[in-house]
Structure formats: C-alpha cells, structure tokens
Design a protein that fits this description.
mainly beta, Immunoglobulin-like, 2 domains, five-stranded antiparallel β-sheet, 23 strands, about 0% helix, rod-shaped
C-alpha cells in the first residue's frame, strides 16, 4: 500500500511500481482526513501486460535442397519477455516482394534438445532468399533477427513437354517441336536430345542432339509408318526424365512429277529411253505405245 497528503480538487492518481509481469493484481483506494479513514473503494482487478519478446538466438539455415531449407534457432525466453509463437519471413533477395510485413508466417517448430527446427518448403531452385525470424506474444511481435542469406541448390531440369509435329510437313519428313523445362538460375538447359523409334520396335536412336533449340527436322522417314518420339533436357547437374512419348504417322507421299527425258535411242528392233533420277521415287513404269504414222 501507499499514500500521501493531497490537496485541491480534480482527479488524483498514484502509481504502484515494481509489479511482476503478466500478473493479476487487485487495487483499491480509500480517503483519509482529520476525522479518520473512510471505507475502501470497490476492488479493481487488472493484469500487468507482458514485455515484447526478445529476438530469437542463433538462427542458422542449413540442409539446403533445390526446394527447401531447414531453420534452426534457440528460443530467447525470459520471465518478463514470454514467447507465444514464432514467425518466419522468407523473401527473394533483391526483389520487390511488396509489403514485407505481409510475408511473416507463423511456423510450427519441432524441439530437439532445446533447439527449435522448421523446414521451409516449396521454394524455387537456384533462387537466393533472405530468411528472418521473430517471436510473438500477447504484446505483439518482437524484434526480428538479422537476415540470413540462403541460395537454394539447383536441380536437374524438369522434363520437357511431349514433342509434336508442326502442320504442313512434306513427305518423309516431320518438324517436331516441344516446350523447354523451367529454367533455373545458375542451371540453365544446355542441351536437348530427341529420340525416335518405329512403332513395334523397342530400339531408340537419337535423331537430334543440340543446344537450347526446341524444334528439329526429322527426315528419311518411311511412307505410311508410325513413329514414336521422346525428348529430354540436360543442364550442368544432369539429365531430366524423358518427356511423354508422342506417336505420329509419317506424312503420305504425293505423286511424283513426270520424269525429265534426256534422250531416246532406237535400233532396228529396240528403243532406249533415258531420264533424270528423282528423289523419293521407289520405281518407274515405262509404257510402250504404237504411234500413228503420219504422211502419205
């Protein structure tokens, strides 16, 4: 308790100090004068508020994978600075991520030997992030830790899309196109390989091996034949899985143009016809006709 002599009108106040944090207290007041002490006022019950939590200690980021990172820290607990929960903020380094306050997310950590652990997942391979941590109690959030830089590992590429032919292919050829996998910073696609096999055969052979191009002209196909195609990509860490296979029929052949006759030589009982060779022709047919003799 405490008190003192007061004079004059208006409101009065008295501060009771050295109370414990987050503790309920009952307060009351009574008046005194020359006639003695009056009755006590009704009790006012109040709880002292908590102080903001202290910043977590020893934040470390390790066990980095292409899409995740493991955070480890020691909770900075103090009777006057209780901790209700922890929040993490993971932001792209150097990027404009909007309001930084919107990126704080409550994390449910596991305790192992006095150290709290949380795995942050669904990150982008090869990207650079800054990780921060803070504690929260009924007062609100406390100070955040210094940003811990993290660079995620790159991974082999995801598989490309299924190769498909472009319309309008000429006979015995196809122009196949596909979509490249997502490019990872620091692990861009260096090479694509396109393979082909005949329908009914299990033997694949490469028909294209190139850089970042996503199209290929395949020639010397047989007429009216079904082919299977697949493609995969490579970066500095290795090969992707094969794409889904596509099965396509080679374009039908169109009738050839008339041969260009070079010469025709005859003897008393034979005639030799010579003409230029044509690509894509499997056979020729020579027809003999009896010409009508003109003249008198």
């Amino acid at each position: 308790g405490g008190g003192g002599a007061l004079g004059g009108g208006g409101d009065h106040s008295y501060t009771v100090e050295h109370l414990d944090v987050d503790t309920p207290y009952a307060l009351r007041v009574r008046a005194c004068n020359a006639g003695g002490e009056g009755p006590w006022s009704p009790l006012w019950t109040q709880r002292t508020i908590v102080k903001p939590p202290l910043a977590p200690m020893g934040l470390e980021c390790g066990d980095v994978t292409p899409t995740s990172v493991t955070m480890r820290w020691v909770p900075n607990t103090h009777p006057h600075h209780p901790v209700s929960l922890h929040q993490a903020r993971v932001m792209l380094s150097g990027g404009d991520g909007g309001d930084p306050e919107d990126h704080w997310v409550t994390v449910a950590a596991e305790e192992r030997g006095g150290v709290l652990t949380k795995v942050i997942e669904d990150l982008v391979p090869g990207q650079r992030y800054t990780v921060q941590l803070r504690a929260v109690n009924t007062y609100g959030p406390g100070d955040a830790t210094e940003g811990a830089p993290v660079t995620l590992l790159c991974d082999v590429p995801s598989r490309p899309s299924q190769p498909v032919p472009e319309p309008g292919s000429v006979p015995r050829t196809m122009v196949l196109t596909w979509s490249a996998p997502y490019g990872q910073p620091g692990a861009e696609v260096r090479e694509h390989v396109l393979e082909m096999r005949r329908h009914g055969s299990s033997e694949w052979h490469a028909v294209h091996r190139g850089g970042a191009d996503t199209s290929c002209l395949v020639g010397d196909l047989d007429h009216f034949t079904m082919y299977h195609f697949r493609v995969r990509a490579r970066n500095d860490l290795g090969w992707s899985a094969w794409s889904d296979e596509s099965m396509e029929a080679s374009p039908p052949a169109s009738a050839p143009e008339p041969p260009f006759v070079v010469s025709c030589r005859t003897t008393h009982d034979s005639a030799t016809l010579r003409w230029r060779s044509q690509p894509g022709v499997s056979a020729y047919e020579v027809q003999k006709l009896t010409a009508t003799r003109s003249g008198g």
